[in-house]
Amino acid sequence: MTITLTKGQRISLEKVAPGLSDVFVGLGWDVKATDTGSDFDLDTSVFLLGASGKLISDAHLIFYNNLTSPDPEQSVKHGGDNLTGAGEGDDEVIKINLKKVPSDVQTIVVAVTIHEAEARHQNFGQVQSAFVRVVDSQTDQEVLRYDLMEDYSTETALIMAELYFKDGEWRLNAVGSGYQGGLQALLERYK
């Protein structure tokens, strides 16, 4: 049974799905019928942060040009870039083996940005039905889901959710925070 989260809600993965280790984080969205003269290309990025709340290294930014985490186990893997977001279900997927994530990674931030948003005059106000969900990879059962309801009419970057390690277990925070400045704004926040 899926647990639906609201903005700002935090929950223990161990409490909702005991023994959960191999997951995928699915993200999806639809573009409103808006003509900006260009296609929308939304991109998922994952920031692997240390205890300082900062990116451990440039290699700890997982996105369409760096699909796997630098640890030997490759505990975090990006499923690849979906250039259109067309169709039902997940538009982009991040696979995470929670048991193999190195101990120096304390937070896994899942974000979505609009490629060339400023040049294309695009923002998240033109996007609807955005969601992030955590699925047990072994059973294909959706465990958690967060549907974004806010209007992000000026934002070009969204932090969707954070997985964080606290008191010996992984937890999820449904963040839903928007930023202007696209991926660069998030890099400045986490570098």
TrEMBL record:
Q: Where, by residue number, does the polypeptide cross the bilayer?
A: none
Note the superkingdom of the native organism.
Bacteria
Per UniProt, residues of the TerD domain are: 1-190
Cross-referenced InterPro entries, in alphabetical order? Answer: Stress/Tellurium_Resist, TerD
Q: Which Pfam families match?
A: TerD
| PANTHER family membership | CAMP-BINDING PROTEIN 1-RELATED, GENERAL STRESS PROTEIN 16U
Q: Which family does it belong to?
A: Belongs to the CAPAB/TerDEXZ family.
Write the protein's name.
Chemical-damaging agent resistance protein C
Specify the species.
Gloeocapsopsis dulcis AAB1 = 1H9
